[in-house]
Amino acid sequence: MTVMSIGKAWEEAVAFVARERSLLFPVALLFVALPGLILQEMTPPELANWTMEKGALPDVPFSFGLSMLIGVIIIWFGSLALFALALRPGISVGEALRLSLSRLPVLLGTALTVVGVLLGVAIVGMIIVVAISFVAKAASAALAMLLGLGLGGVMLFGSVRLLLLNPVVIDGKEGVSASLRHSWALTRGHFWRLLGFILVLTLLSAIVGSAAQVIFGLVGRLVAGAEGARLTGGIAAAVVSTVVQVYMLVMLARLYRQAEAG
């Protein structure tokens, strides 16, 4: 089994970001932070304030759904470009963007494949639940709950096992199926280590982003009132979260190199 060192990846990521920050951060801010911030500003208030306790999901305009899809694709495009910069030292930003554009269809294909598999599992599970409901409603309710928990577990497991998918896509010339198999193979035996890595960075990003939002939000409130607080806090949170994400992506690139070397 390949040895995967989170500590070594962190040290290499810190050194790389310090050396190449003039290339990494402009790309991250333009293609990751900015689309996310625009989507945040476009989110309908009723959707932003919606929670599971409030019942059915509110009606969402088609334009917002389309904008969200475009925004996600742009963010994926930017992430691939960042991986290209991290995996190929000496590459220019223009070359990284062109490489990202050429490999983006493969990443989109892998996403559609994974979503299709999950939908297939969910549909089969729902058919089983409906069939059982004709016999015993109590049993069907319990089975539906177990199905939801199981599907959530499958999504978590799959997301961790495919954590190196983006570097696999950008660094190679494989197609959709081969990229998925390659990424899955590289993470074999490293599930818990990678899960801990993601949980720590996600928690760190949430804490630091929330702190920046509160601090800069207070400054914005003093200058421009409630609207200024919301906008300033949102921008600060997006920038800080993007900085954390840059380090995370570079670390993933280093972990990918470790796995490939093994």
UniProtKB/TrEMBL annotation:
Residues 4-258 form the DUF7847 domain. It holds the Pfam family DUF7847. This is Glycerophosphoryl diester phosphodiesterase membrane domain-containing protein. Keywords: Membrane, Transmembrane, Transmembrane helix. The chain crosses the membrane at residues 64-85, 106-135, 141-164, 191-215, 235-256. Coiled coil: none annotated.
